[in-house]
Amino acid sequence: MKRFFILIVCLILFALSGIAQTKWYSPVSGDTLLVRGRAWNAEIGKSYQRIPNRFKPSLRKPLWDLSQNSAGLYIEFITDAPEINIHYTVSGPLQIVNVGTIAMSGIDLYSFDENGQSLSCSCFGNYRITSKSVDYHYGGLTYPGKQWREYRLYLPLYNTVDSLQIGVPQNSKFEFMPASLERPIVVYGTSIAQGASASRPGMAWTNILQRKLDAPVYNLGHSGNGRLEKAMFNALSEINARLFIVDCMPNMSVKDSIASLLREGVNILRSKSDAPILLVEHCGYNNYLTVNSEKTKVDLLNSRLKAAYQQLQREGVKGLYYLTKDELGVNSDLDSQIDGVHATDIGMRSYAEAYMKKIAEILDFHPMKKFMPVRQTRDQAFYNWSLRHHEIMQRNRQVNPDVVMIGNSITHYWAGEPAAPIHRGDKAWKKLFGKRKVTNMGYGWDRIENIFWRLYHGELDGISPRHIFMMAGTNNVGSNTDEEIVDGVEGLVKLIQKLQPQACIHVVKIYPRRGQEQRLQHLNTLLQDRLARYTDVDVVDVTKQLTTPDGRVDESLFVDGLHPNAQGYERIARVYQDFLK
User: Fold this and answer.
1) Is residue 76 within 8 Å of 27, Cβ to Cβ?
2) What pLDDT is stored for residue 3 in this prediction?
3) Is the peptide bond before 418 cis (omega within 30 degrees of 0)?
């Protein structure tokens, strides 16, 4: 009996040890590099530095050494794990005078809920930082509806990461997300840009900006070494940027020839890129009004930068923008700097907000308040939303489509490429499009705000389709009024017209759905009336093809009263055909 009891205990302990087994994953172990927040990913290879080795001979040693720090780098992954362990090694000091241990050598983990709301993941002190090895443990993670979440892991701001692994229970789902294909915002700056003196990595202003925009931001800030150097501008010019930010004045001296350095740098950028360039004044110090010599220095540097900016404009350089000390508003807030120079978390947020306002002006980013662009994972049982975005961006780089189909699950699960796990209308799709090159930009469970996110994040960039079909709003019926939905669809039309002025836009009325026929008839009438003012926009109506004579959904054409079956798609295709002639 005793031996039997011991055997049972051993079996239980063995089973528990199996449950607790951790499987480890590295973002740089495979052929595809999965580190975000930097250029030259393939060239840099299996390390966490920010600049590739071929630039080493042209960079001063202090600058090169700082480029090995992982400031601004982050990893994205999905998992349903109840606990996440992060283990990594570093080769630099754990802290310096004005940067604490967590900011310099720690990490920050964020996540998203199914509607794209950003969430913070705290480890509540469950971390251990030694001279070379760091461990973080995030436990008790829960997932409503037994779903997975997407996570974003920011790396240390001021230390060099030599190796990194993410561990989850062996039976948990885990997958790294590929590096973004979007054009980045590139920041060239000083210690403040690198992250001094945020309390943790996520509070560096470049990382705050990255979260606010939910877009790639490359941090090329180097403490004490933002000096408008030719070698750095040569490196920057290789990046296919959406915007360059040059924020170097705090590292410049009144003895420096700011005008000539800036002219050379801007000309290098303009030789390869027409991306906007934002020049930024010295932020000023908290003692700006109590130490006259500091005020004199800051004012002189900023006046020289302003003069150089104006001279470049007179010389015909296009796409130059300017951000002033007063617009930054840092030195006027006495809580914004840790030592009269480097930013506290309050200062970092002020930086991010000032940049966000200026970037919105430069990039014409003025989203509708009712439909703020956001990602989602509501249909994750069938597909990965972020991965589909990546696949569409990838396809449009390889194939310049003649036709683009924008929509939700009804479009997504019709047919076409990128392929979906469900395709209910292959025959109708092939008959409709034949040999035309078509990109299916439908996403299951997408709402208007999610389509806005996709358009703002580059899904129509670099292509020139002749036809764009869009059906939007059906998934907003439960959360918005008819008038709001029509406003949202019209906003999408305006954005598409700006992004693709040559395309014929075909707005598809919301398809009928069981129990909502009367409301959708009213909504579609409002939509028809609103779009009548647009002479270059067609309105596509398939309602009669999908309903019975009394206006109800024809159940024989649907799988569930909402999503068409093969016969339903055949009827839809016959209507679409008339708009492709």
Assistant:
1) no
2) 57
3) yes
Helix, strand, coil shares of the chain, percent, nearest 5, are 40, 20, 45
Contacts of 3 (CB under 8 A, 6+ apart): none
DSSP 202-241: GGSHHHHHHHHHTS-EEEEE-TT-----HHHHHHHTTS--
Pairing of strands 243-247, 277-280: parallel
Long-range contacts of 257-264 (CB under 8 A, 24+ apart): 258/228, 258/301, 258/304, 258/305, 258/308, 259/304, 259/307, 259/308, 259/311, 261/227, 261/228, 261/229, 262/228, 262/305, 262/308, 262/309, 262/312, 263/308, 263/311, 263/312, 264/230, 264/233
Lateral strand order in the sheet of 217-221: 217-221, 185-189, 243-247, 277-280, 320-323
Do 52 and 43 touch, CB atoms closer than 8 A? Answer: yes
How many of the other CB atoms lie within 10 Å of CB of 157? Answer: 34
Amino acid at 261: L
578/502 Cα distance (integer angstroms): 19
Residue whose C-alpha is closest to residue 496's, from 531, 522, 528: 531
The 10s digit of each residue's pLDDT in 134-166 is 999 999 999 988 799 999 999 999 999 999 999
pTM across the whole model: 0.94
| Alpha-carbon gap, residue 462 to 528, rounded angstroms | 30
Q: Quick: pLDDT tens for 211-239.
A: 999 999 999 999 999 999 999 999 999 99
pLDDT number for residue 325 = 97
d(CA 361, CA 378): 32
Burial label for 125, CB within 10 Å (0-12, 13-18, 19+), is exposed
Whole-number Å distance between alpha carbons of 498 and 387:
26
Residue among 315, 238, 330, 317 at smallest CA distance from 281: 330
> How far from 110 is each of 102, 190, 293, 565, CA to CA, in Å?
15, 26, 42, 39
